[in-house]
Amino acid sequence: MKNRLSKWRLMSVFAALALVLSGCGEPFLSTLTPAGEVAYQQYDLMILSTVIMVAVIVVVTIIFVLAITRFRRKKGEEDKIPKQVEGSHTLEIVWTVIPIVLLLILAVPTVIMTFDQADVKAMDEEPNEEGVRDALVVNVRASLYWWEFEYPDYGVITSQELVVPTDQKVYFNLIASDVKHSFWIPAAGGKMDTNTDNVNKFWLEFDSEKADEANNLFYGKCAELCGPSHALMDFKVETKSQEDFQAWLNAMQSAEEVAPADTAAAQGQQIFEQSCLSCHAVTPQDGRPEQARLAPNLATFGERSRIAGILDHNEEELKNWIRDPEQYKPGNKMTGTYQELSEEELDQLASYLMSLKVEEK
Amino acid sequence: MSTIAQKRGFASTIWDYLTTVDHKKIAILYLIAGGFFFLLGGIEAMLIRIQLAVPNNDFVSAGFYNELLTMHGTTMIFLAAMPLLLGFMNAIMPLQIGARDVAFPFINALGFWLFFFGGVFLNLSWFLGGAPDAGWTSYASLSLASEGHGIDFYALGLQISGFGTLMGGINFLVTIINMRAPGMTYMRMPLFTWTTFVASALILFAFPPLTASIFMLTFDRMFGANFFNVAAGGNTIIWEHFFWIFGHPEVYILILPAFGIFSEIFATFSRKRLFGYSSMVFATVLIGFLGFMVWAHHMFTVGLGPVANAIFAVATMAIAVPTGIKIFNWLLTIWGGSIKFTVPMIYAVAFIPSFVMGGVTGVMQAAAPADYQYHDSYFIVAHFHYVIVGGVVLALLAGTHFYWPKMFGTMLSEKIGKFTFFFFFVGFHLTFFVQHFLGLMGMPRRVWTFLPGQGLDTGNLVSSVGAAFMAIGVVSLLVNIVITTMKNERVGNDPWGDGRTLEWALPSPAPFYNFKQLPLVRGLDAYWLEKMEGKDTLTPAEPIGDIHMPNPSFVPVVISFGLFVAAFGAMYQVDDKPWAIPVLIIGLAITFGAMLYRSIKDDHGFHIHKEDLMEDDDDNKGVKA
């Protein structure tokens, strides 16, 4: 029995080793590859708490293993009655005080960080004469099952792919337009809920070196159950250097509706205007109120990395998506809002949509 | 009655159980119904793990998956874990304090039948248009947006079964306060009784918020109220507060009785009195108290602000202290003992490292900024399965083996028991350990599928394999129960040989009046004290006399059935069905009519006469150990 037990222990060591070797997840997604100040702080707190807790586990395990191996009922001692101990005040005090000390060690950084990460005073600063604040503010609006990112100081709106500069704090206003969602970019920091009741505020920061390791594209997730396609409510975060980001903002501000390059695209544009335009906008400056913005802004559609946040970015998948969105995102709000399109119309529409670009024309 | 070996027909046995007010039979009903729902929840869990075994799987549809995850959580918490624990409380607690029954036997039966009809109602949703799909937490914006009747089934089903639980809790409180045998002071009560006491107090204070919030949800969905409708000035965050003011104590309602079961097992199979008994009692009460102070740690990411988050973070950490006290006291109970590794003891021993792992991740989550990462990820899934499976379910399995002889008079096979333990325990760690890392690697919880290429494939496959192991374990337990019942080898009073508390001085199973003479309790572990003085019976506190017993009653079933009927009426009146309002009225009429009948009809019960008890003594001679 004892031999078998030690084999089990060996097995669990190997299992733990295999886990360590399998790494910490993907650099664009994992909280274990922190890519910004908030994520670093949270990672450090995780490590601190893990170290303390592993120490606790080790102590418990040592006492535990000694106890169950040393005090087994042995042959010939079946009638032995052990001493009936009532307890020990000294021991009780020891195992009350030591945990309290350990918890204090954890509590102090916890409280400091809680306040630090909730510090969004910079959002309330007075804007300059052009209406621009020093701090970069992004309004995030979550809807079933897509994300809208508005840069209020610049009058620019985009969807599904958040664009942020590296090495500076980015402040977020978060809200949901239908049911509660939660905004989470694991590699950049913890999540915050997008409530239907109120605007939540927090900030994140993206480290340029770490962003390079992730090819400047992080994955974002919805972290609150919101309906059938909750699992598919992904978004992407594209990181740019501060200069490139400024250039992108300028391009977005001056972007005009794309003129179709060929007849197919021109046909596609016509179809779009009939079937899609009432919900989807195609320029980054969408003046309508948010209640009227019923679907993702498509101004940068041709530059995105995924279709609907999940499918590969090519015309084939785009046509599949338009043919039957329900198959890819069950419960979405697009299904059934437009009449069926012929294959030819789909081709035209796809070529038009793929031509929607702001930066690379 | 119990001693007259009566061969009963099947129908009369059923009738006996439908009308029983005997706490031991109600315990068996809880065990059967809770066991059934446990299997149901287990099947739902297996479907979930099959769906998540590989990326982009389409074994189940997205909508159906949300129904599965909702019903898995709801079933396991409300219809499996709690009823099974209530079953053990019913079976054992009155025996442990030397009582002949609980304080209100009729309400005890009513509590069971309310739970049963509530559970059946909730599960009928599978066949009547779809189960609830907003998670067991049923957050308001999503639950109001959910189409169909799923959430209505959730609200009405939980309301009915919740009434039952609340009655059970009050009943146990009154029983423990009023019905302890002579000499059974509070500080001589076995720890399982103490944890039952504290858990019942938690039920008393935690269930009303749930009742209130479900009431509001019911009225929002079915009767046009706007408590949670933001557009009409309602607020959804209030639901979250209400739910977790109930939901967090609920966790302790589950784990404290589990602690109690393990405390009994550790003392019994180490042949030692519980180390630090009074600090164990103190820790239990403290955990129960602090349990009400920490609900907002489920809401760190809701945006309550840094002040609330910091306060609740520190309060949550504080709970680790009394829990740590318990762990070390158990270790010191084993220390210096004479340990016998029976199946219950193996579970108890395995519980310590498993639960410690679940506990420490709990402290990690108390660090609010780090929790912004853990929250609603698979890390959380791993954590609460470590405490609930590693704590509560291991206790239920241990308790099943430990108390089986006291409830049914037969011993479950130790050999199959070890087999069950091996598969369940290995499967449990295989399933949930890796989920910590899945969460840290960025996998949100409650996702019906995941895309390949995100580094999540291997971990999910491992987890699904583990789930299969757990299933094998559970099936082997069923086999064990069937074989044991078929063999029907009767055992004596103290089949484990090391029983310490009053219940082990009684025949297995105990006679329907429990104690012929109420025992005189002379200290902690009363039966052990007697044994150490060379006696194998308890010191009686009274001469043999007539015993007053309650009559069986069918009224609890009728009251509960009325609410079950009324719930259909309340639900379908939303669809403007012409029969719905009449059904609602008829259902309520049945319930209130049955209550009225119960109130105006005098039922004085009956007496077991002294002479019959004397006779019993002769019959029992062969059985006594």
UniProtKB/TrEMBL annotation, chain B:
Cofactor: heme; Cu(2+)
Reaction equations catalysed: 4 Fe(II)-[cytochrome c] + O2 + 8 H(+)(in) = 4 Fe(III)-[cytochrome c] + 2 H2O + 4 H(+)(out)
Keywords on record: Cell membrane, Copper, Electron transport, Heme, Iron, Membrane, Metal-binding, Respiratory chain, Translocase, Transmembrane, Transmembrane helix, Transport
A biological-process GO annotation: electron transport coupled proton transport
Domain Cytochrome oxidase subunit I profile: 9-522
Pathway: Energy metabolism; oxidative phosphorylation
Family affiliation: Belongs to the heme-copper respiratory oxidase family.
Name by which UniProt lists this protein: Cytochrome c oxidase subunit 1
UniProt source species: Bacillus thermotolerans
Lineage: Bacteria, Bacillati, Bacillota, Bacilli, Bacillales
